[in-house]
């Protein structure tokens, strides 16, 4: 499992023949765990999956049944492996409430992929057209996901200080990163190659990266003079002063906020005049990413707001905001729009359209097709 993206291989418990396992979370992490067990000839030890989404119950993932959490009292198993990332802490609490013990009865192995290069490549591509990355002193990055490689890359290439803000810890280590030196060293190696490929000063990048770390007493710490990790804080109430930063950015975060207008307003509030908001929003129904059949990028549109809230009750919340609506919210907040890029289009067939809730039924075909977006806006000077 050296190529695992969604699983922390060092956290996977040893499974012996005859021990039965349940995977909690019907997403990418469970797909990787199933592949892991198949490679080791332990596929028959997987009983099935548990998921909090009632729409998943009774379906199958890669041939394995998906059960409701209440089934735990009726299923024989030796351990539960939590593969969910966004919901890992809530699920752990849920299992503890059932009398299960972490490290004995259940284990948390999910992690977010460290897609630092993907984010940087996207930034540089748009910056080559708009030139918004020059002169940045302070950046707020919302949603670190437990690893600070992107923050360190911003510091190495452009900015002088970064606020990293998240609503969840996601097993992050800060400021002591001694246990993750290998991961950060790999990130620097990738960053150096990225800098050379994009005609950036790789030597300067390496020097600035090194300045982000401090060695004390045999431990490695991130330099508090270069970045700060603020947790737990939500997008609706960011822990920053008004007009404090030159840029606010997020990737795959805005689709999880419960008050979209407030998130747009907060982006505006914390920016200095002339500051840049850069957001990549994954608006598609996140269930469509997995291999459980029956979901499209627009499946959520068949639900009323109340129905969707019930589905999300014990999950990492996803809102029902479409790309064009995000554009309207940022304009409403007072931004000047520099770029609005719809990343994908999906054409629902007549049957799917007929199932759409009235909240979405009157949209034009062009608006219906929009899936995912990048939004770049400037606070007027």
CATH architecture of the domain at 9-108: 3-Layer(aba) Sandwich
How would you write the strand order of the largest sheet?
11-8-7-12-13-15-14
> How many helix segments?
12
Portion of residues within helices: 25-40%
CATH fold-level label of the domain at 9-108: Rossmann fold
What's the rounded overall pLDDT mean? 92
- Topology, number of strands: 15
N-to-C order of helices and strands? EHEEEEHEHEHEHHEEEEHEHHEHHHE
Regions with little confidence, pLDDT below 50 for 5+ residues: none
- For the record, the CATH class of the domain at 9-108 is Alpha Beta
Alpha carbon gap, first and last residue: 50 Å
Q: What general form does the structure show?
A: globular
Describe the structure.
It is globular and about 60 Å long. The longest helix has 17 residues, at 181-197. α4 packs across α6, α5 runs antiparallel to α6 and α7 packs across α9. A seven-stranded mixed beta sheet has the order 11-8-7-12-13-15-14, sandwiched between helices. It has a six-stranded mixed beta sheet with strand order 3-4-2-1-5-6, sandwiched between helices. Strands 9-10 form a two-stranded antiparallel ribbon. The protein is an alpha/beta fold. It is built from twelve helices and 15 strands. It has a domain at 9-108: NAD(P)-binding Rossmann-like Domain (Rossmann fold, 3-Layer(aba) Sandwich).
């Amino acid at each position: 499992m050296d190529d695992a993206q969604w699983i922390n291989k060092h956290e996977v418990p040893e499974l012996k023949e005859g021990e039965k396992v349940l995977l909690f979370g019907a997403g990418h992490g469970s797909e990787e765990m199933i592949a892991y067990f198949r490679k080791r000839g332990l596929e028959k030890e997987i009983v099935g999956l548990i998921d909090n989404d009632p729409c998943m119950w009774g379906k199958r993932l890669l041939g394995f049944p998906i059960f409701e959490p209440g089934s735990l009292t009726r299923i024989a198993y030796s351990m539960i492996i939590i593969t969910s990332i966004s919901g890992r802490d809530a699920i752990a609490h849920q299992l503890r409430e059932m009398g299960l013990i972490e490290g004995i009865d259940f284990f948390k192995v999910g992690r977010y992929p460290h897609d630092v290069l993907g984010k940087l490549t996207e930034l540089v591509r748009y910056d080559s057209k708009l030139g918004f990355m020059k002169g940045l002193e302070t950046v707020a990055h919302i949603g670190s996901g437990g690893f600070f490689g992107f923050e360190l890359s911003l510091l190495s290439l452009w900015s002088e200080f970064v606020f990293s803000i998240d609503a969840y810890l996601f097993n992050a280590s800060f400021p002591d990163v001694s246990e993750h030196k290998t991961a950060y060293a790999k990130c620097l190696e990738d960053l150096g190659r990225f800098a050379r490929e994009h005609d950036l000063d790789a030597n300067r990048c390496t020097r600035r990266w090194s300045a982000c770390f401090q060695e004390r007493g045999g431990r490695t710490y991130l330099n508090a003079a270069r970045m700060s990790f603020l947790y737990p804080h939500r997008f609706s109430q960011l822990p920053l002063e008004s007009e404090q930063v030159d840029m606010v950015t997020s990737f795959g975060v805005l689709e999880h906020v419960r008050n979209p207008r407030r998130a747009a307003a907060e982006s505006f509030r914390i920016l200095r005049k002339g500051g840049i908001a850069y957001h990549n929003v994954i608006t598609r129904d996140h269930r469509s990413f997995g291999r459980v059949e029956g979901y499209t990028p627009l499946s959520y549109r068949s639900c009323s707001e109340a129905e969707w809230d019930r589905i999300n009750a014990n999950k990492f919340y996803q809102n029902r905001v479409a790309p064009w609506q995000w554009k309207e919210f940022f304009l409403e907040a007072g931004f000047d729009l520099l770029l609005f890029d719809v990343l994908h289009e999906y054409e629902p067939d007549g049957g799917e359209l007929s199932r759409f809730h009235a909240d979405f039924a009157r949209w034009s075909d062009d608006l219906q097709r929009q899936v995912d977006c990048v939004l770049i806006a400037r606070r007027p000077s």
